[in-house]
Amino acid sequence: MYKLLVRPLLFLFDPESVHHFTFKMIRFFSKIPLFPFVFRSLYQIKDPGLEREVFGLKFKNPVGLAAGFDKDAKLFNELHNFGFGFIEIGTLTPKAQIGNPKKRLFRLKSDSAIINRMGFNNEGVKDAVKRLKKNKRVLIGGNIGKNTDTLPENYTRDYLECFNALHPYVDYFVLNVSCPNVGSHAKLNDKEYLNELILAVQKANKTFQKQKPIVLKIAPDLNKNQLDEIIELVAETRLDGVIASNTSVSRKDLRMPKDQLDAIGNGGLSGQPIKDKSTEVIKYLSEKSNKAFPIIGVGGIHSAQDALEKLQAGASLVQIYTGFIYEGPKLIKDINKALL
Questions:
Q1: What are 278-304's pLDDT values in tens digits?
Q2: pLDDT tens string 217-274
């Protein structure tokens, strides 16, 4: 029903406006008695065979919602009813920021893809914390970054502010250092700085009674030398894992005509065109490191088979975002059924 009726209607309108409209509709129906039960009965699968233990955490199933969909932790309880095993919020920054100028979100229908240059628009970490206090036992990942106007010498301070504020309310952390839509990005790709950042966050982690897993989110456009550096970095810092991957800056082999792509301009590409690239990154990291650390696989998952490929390549868990928009909530159930 989603692909035949709902999606064609939603796709008639501006993507960002539709995103906010969809949020309102999910919230509205979730407040009506019995509707949450209906969502759960339609989409959730509870089976011990789906459970996974990763980072020392128990996941009810390995299918998560990637960061960017519920940036401000406004809908995680309701979205959980669609069958997700975990939900990643963010990217959150210390201060609220409006992000890049609109229009900044674009559908590539012929490619089953999205280009975005949102620029970490969010209401700030303190606002998210207020809502996370109402968590009904949903396993939550906290994706954190820096404010756009933060000076390079203060990047680590921004990450630490978010980390300390979120620590009691999330189950694992993601250091987002690979988003192509924020300014002053070069320093975040420097191995020496990444080492400094990870160690600083790990030091802060030790000040809490219960330490939380910390993972690094990387780009799909890294070459083998850069991936080798990531493997070395994880080993040197004893980081808990990696998310592979973020959006891509590549425009290779897209069906959309070049003039239309040029009109859209810069931004991160997600969806089916980055599926193979993301899977190759997962496979390389897993094989080259001899499966030394867990990997969350994300990028171009639009079917159960796409998810299985990520897991077979070496991912311990998977996340969806663009596939959720194009395929609807049935995708989560399809993946879990295929796993069983």
A1: 999 999 999 999 999 999 999 999 999
A2: 999 999 999 999 999 999 999 999 999 999 999 999 999 999 999 999 999 999 999 9
Q: What is the DSSP letter of 290?
A: T
Q: Domain residues of the chain, as ranges?
A: 2-339
Please tell me the pTM assigned to this model: 0.97
pLDDT of residue 181: 67
Question: Where is the binding site, in residues?
Answer: 67-71, 91, 116-120, 143, 176, 181, 217, 245-247, 271, 300, 321-322
Cα–Cα separations (whole angstroms), residue 141 to 62, 148, 192, 234: 13, 22, 25, 19
Question: Is 124 in contact with 165 (CB distance < 8 Å)?
Answer: no
Contact of 300 with 271, CB cutoff 8 Å: yes
> Of the CATH numbers 3.30.300.30, 3.40.605.10, 3.10.20.340, 3.20.20.70, which one belongs to the domain with range 2-339?
3.20.20.70
Q: What are phi and psi of 54, to 5 degrees?
A: -135, 140
Told to judge if 162 belongs to the known catalytic residues of this protein, a careful annotator would answer no
Q: Catalytic: which of 113, 129, 139, 179?
A: 179
Q: Which residues are annotated as a binding site for substrate?
A: 71, 116-120, 176, 181, 246-247
pLDDT at 26: 97
